[in-house]
Amino acid sequence: MQRGLSHIMGNKKVQTLGVALSKIEESDLDFEYENERRYHSKSLGDYWIPNDEPEIQRLNMQFHCFRLQNDGKLHLAPLSEPPTRVLDIGTGTGIWPIYMGREYPSAEIYATDIAAIQPKKDVPPNVHFIVHDVEKEWPFGEESFDYIHMAMLHGSIADWPGVLQKIKRHLKPGGKVELLELALCEILSDDGTVTPDQAYPRYMKLLFEAAAKRGREVHMGPRIRGLVMEAGFVDVYERINKCPQKPLVGDDDFHQFIGMMHHRNVLSGLEGWAMRPLTGTFGWAPEQVRELVRQVKEEVVNPNIHQYIRMHVVHGTNPRRPASQPVPGLTSTLHTLVTGSLAIGVVLGATAAYFALRLR
């Protein structure tokens, strides 16, 4: 049984040895190491991706990329007035609530995750990080949030309808929910350069099968609109962005930059996404995983293969009357394939500067 830091510190042998455990934080004991990568402890929840420094950097890069594709916005849900209380579920590195806290300094921003990997410095005073599993009892009162955000939790949640009902109960009437997920297992091309026998589609199929054996689903993008509607939210809208896996010849500078960011994101993430699922679920040797990743990387860097995946962003409104009394005509959907984005000068400049520094 895993024991807390106070129990360890009370052990006389530890005290006698003079081990400097006073400098160790409780969260430092919540990690496991496999195949040269750090993961959160399995006792904390079901999450299959590393949470070490390389993954933290990748997640932060992914945040900037997704934000640019969403017109430089932190949220697409329309907020008629500045929110007073916001919740981010599965916050990861905490970068989204940090930016949200700066944009809405009068709001209280709460962010939960099963792993305490968020920064302790340079965090706005209105941002609060809480270690919590979204599928367990929530530590908040019902109808207490104006806006709830949840992004990229594919493969992590067993009961999506149950989580959405919790979101609904904890949103104020008229409050907004927003989800962002990928159509992760559809590696697409518009010119036939992606075929099912290639390594990249095979890789994603294996991740899908490994997640299914754990009772999880990774291909969540196409499902979230229906789930949000079934949960009883109204005014449900969906936006779909193309995520090119590399810069494409003929694209303008903005889309070349987006392609470069996705390219770096994928190349840095491929091994971490696959190692724990394939070794733990299918019994692969780490060398087998690395060989598959090598084959996928060859295809990703091949300029003659023009892969992309789709990002789905869905937002809806908690109705102002009980869900048992639906109002006909309130629920609508907008199914728009977005192939272009606004070139937001300030955000693009800041993001470009960020990566210029990273590349030095």
Automatic annotation (TrEMBL):
Record carries keyword Methyltransferase: yes
Keywords: Membrane, Methyltransferase, Transferase, Transmembrane, Transmembrane helix
Gene Ontology biological process terms from the UniProt entry: methylation
Annotated Pfam families: Methyltransf_23
MF-aspect GO terms: methyltransferase activity
Classification via Gene3D superfamilies: Vaccinia Virus protein VP39
CDD domains found in the cross-reference section: AdoMet_MTases
Transmembrane segments: 334-357
Keyword hit for Transferase: yes
Protein name: S-adenosyl-L-methionine-dependent methyltransferase
